[in-house]
Write a structure and sequence with these properties.
By secondary structure, this protein is of the alpha/beta class. Helix content is 40%, strand content 9%. The protein contains twelve helices and six strands. A four-stranded mixed sheet has the order 4-3-6-5. It is globular. The relative contact order is 0.13. The structure holds fe (ii) ion (FE2). Fe (ii) ion binds next to helix 5 and helix 8.
Amino acid sequence: MKTPAAADASPKGVNRGVAPVTYGTGDRPPRGDYGRARSDYTCEQDHAQYTAADHDTYRRLYARQLQQLPGLACDEFIAAVAHLGSPERIPHFDAISERLQRATGWQVVGVPGLIPEEAFFALLAERKFPVTDWIRQPEEFDYVVEPDIFHDLFGHVPLLFVPAFADYMQAYGAGGLKASRLDACELLARLYWYTVEFGLIATPQGLRAYGAGILSSAGELRHSITAPAAQRVAFDLQRLMRSRYRIDTYQASYFVIDSFQQLFEATAPDFTPVYGQVRAQINLHGEIEAGVVLPGERSFSV
Ligand SMILES: [Fe+2]
């Protein structure tokens, strides 16, 4: 049986350098039946095993998030979310993949749950997004420790229909494989955290969310855009890589991009020298705690 990296099990460990895919894990074995997984950790989505209660959980989660999106989620996300298909039942991955293939060449693949970072990076580099195929229990409606199918599908997949973001995700996977060899996964995990999971984007109408951790959260969507206590700092790659993050509560800091193209371009170059520069900055000045705005830094007020 294949199991995800056990070293990633401690929440405290996230800031010490663990995989971006393992955020929010607790002190217990990962959930999911890994006996079903292939060597690349993917598995068939056994759609027939979903119960009426599973479909109902999906329907209620979807409905709750959808009504919150206007004014808080970015337009690209709102426009793309319909590509997931019917909000009434858990979708078939194959049907979404067909639409994604036509739009950006991506597909979604099933996984039993959290997977090791190298396997995750390898799938992204092949334009395959791993989606956990189980859904939370009704008693976990408001909070589930590990990402489930709702987080992975609703939070992550719509923006894979947007070409610039889709290209960024593939580049991230390729960069991750390289970071593994350079022992730089902790720095790269911060990029994933503060963009793919908790990113904000500036628009003429104001700040909007594009991060999946925000968009799939009942409470953080509004918090991220409207809470005066949170800091919102202009995206800067090296600054971001020096920044710690919180996994046990809403974010104290968010990073704001101007466009998905900016994100793709900022992260397109080889990160090898960037890692060296960030490490030198950390050695000199230390890491930056969440919730801090540095002198002279561009931040956004709400
Ligand atoms: Fe996620």
